[in-house]
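Example 9 (inverse folding). The structure is encoded as follows.
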């Protein structure tokens, strides 16, 4: 009886010692890994709006050749929408621009004091480009319109609305998922229109180089 009791006590002692030893061993269980955050990929798809400013230069056509070549400040705003298909981006953009393009008369048909002015212009264009992640290189073209005024001393002034077309291209870069900046060139041709009961006919051909900022919604 004593031997059996001693053997039982010894076995319990060995079991307790083994349990204590096991508790001191390092835990080999692997802690669950933290989830890895993946930033969303940038896309050009979406509605945007912004402002731009730049420089315009060109000439008045037809009887407008009696005036100096105009040049000056242009600035305004734009709104558009892009849709991205893989690496390609297609979109449409409309803009309206204030223009300070004024030319002075230089011949007897447009004497000293005469002026031809492009007061404003706008475009509605398609855009097609290739995206390199946050950089977009694009071509653009479409409808253009504008308003001009011709003034002649002792005669008065007359204005006209012009239709035309525009072609160009640019590069745009997304600094954040919502803010982009662009540099753009446009060539614009506005049709000849009648002034002073068809005494003068004039249109405009001009280039604009401008920079802009857009907010993408």
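The amino acid assigned to each position is listed next.
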């Amino acid at each position: 009886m004593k031997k059996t009791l001693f053997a039982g006590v010894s076995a319990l002692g060995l079991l307790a010692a083994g349990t204590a030893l096991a508790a001191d061993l390092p835990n080999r269980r692997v802690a669950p890994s933290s989830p890895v955050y993946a930033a969303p990929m940038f896309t050009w798809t979406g509605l945007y709006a912004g402002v731009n400013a730049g420089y315009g230069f060109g000439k008045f056509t037809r009887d407008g050749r009696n005036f100096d070549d105009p040049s000056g400040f242009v600035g305004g705003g734009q709104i558009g929408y892009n849709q991205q298909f893989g690496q390609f981006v297609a979109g449409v953009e409309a803009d309206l621009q204030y223009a300070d393009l004024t030319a002075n008369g230089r011949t007897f048909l447009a004497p000293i004091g005469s002026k031809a002015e492009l007061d404003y212009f706008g475009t509605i264009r398609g855009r097609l480009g290739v995206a390199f992640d946050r950089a977009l290189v694009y071509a653009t073209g479409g409808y253009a319109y504008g308003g001009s005024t011709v003034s002649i001393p002792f005669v008065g002034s007359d204005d006209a609305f012009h239709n035309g077309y525009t072609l160009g291209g640019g590069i745009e870069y997304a600094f954040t998922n919502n803010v982009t900046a662009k540099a753009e060139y446009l060539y614009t041709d506005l049709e000849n229109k009648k002034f002073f009961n068809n005494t003068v006919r004039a249109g405009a051909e001009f280039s604009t180089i401008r920079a802009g900022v857009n907010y993408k919604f």
